Amino acid sequence: MHKLHERDAVPAEPISFDEFLRVDIRVGTIVAADPFPEARKAAYKLMIDFGPMIGTKRSSAQITKHYSLEQLVGRQVAAVVNFPPRQIGPFMSEVLTLGFPDEAGEVVLVAPTTPVPDGGRLF
Fold first, then answer.
1. Which residues pair with 33 in a beta bridge?
2. Alpha-carbon distance 23 to 10, whole Å?
3. What are the chain's domains?
4. Taking Cα atoms as reference points, which of 19, 27, 15, 13 lies closest to residue 80?
5. How far is CA 41 from the centre of its chain?
6. DSSP letters spanning 78-102
7. Closest by alpha carbon to 77, among 43, 33, 34, 11?
8. DSSP sequence for 13-41
């Protein structure tokens, strides 16, 4: 069995509910997925539709181990939508797509088990 990374071994320090609410985690549908050969670690470039209030945002995601490009389009994912954009090589990533590490440390996406409206906020 894979050993957890040191940062995951112990729980984070407690935060208030108001601090949790500052992190805006939304659900969106991947509308496009493309290779990202310029990335240092294997990754895809995603376009994710978060509905009319937030719109479509870009994300770089290191999810090549468990997902092919064809499997991603139409899939709902969770992402943090209120981090500042981050330059990753030639690509500007606007949201952080969320996942958990598997036994080997590879990313498994976080997603609802039943379809929900794009833009819904995690609570």
1. 46
2. 21
3. 6-10+24-109 (2.40.50.140)
4. 27
5. 16
6. EEE-SSPPEEETTEEE-SEE-EEE-
7. 33
8. PP--HHHHHHS-EEEEEEEEEEE-TTSSS
DSSP assigned state of 121: B
Give the pLDDT of the chain (123 residues) as one tens digit per residue.
Answer: 455 566 567 888 999 999 999 999 999 999 999 999 999 999 999 999 999 999 999 999 999 999 999 999 999 999 999 999 999 999 999 999 999 999 999 999 999 999 999 999 999
Would you say 56 and 32 are in contact if contact means Cβ atoms under 8 Å apart? Answer: no
CA distance 69 to 34: 7
- 43: DSSP letter: -
- Read off the pTM: 0.90
Question: Residue with structure tokens 């468990």?
Answer: 66
The Cβ of residue 24 has, within 10 Å, a number of other Cβ atoms equal to: 14
Q: How many residues does the chain have?
A: 123
Helix (H) or strand (E) holding 49: strand 44-49
Per the listing, tokens 């995603």 go with 46
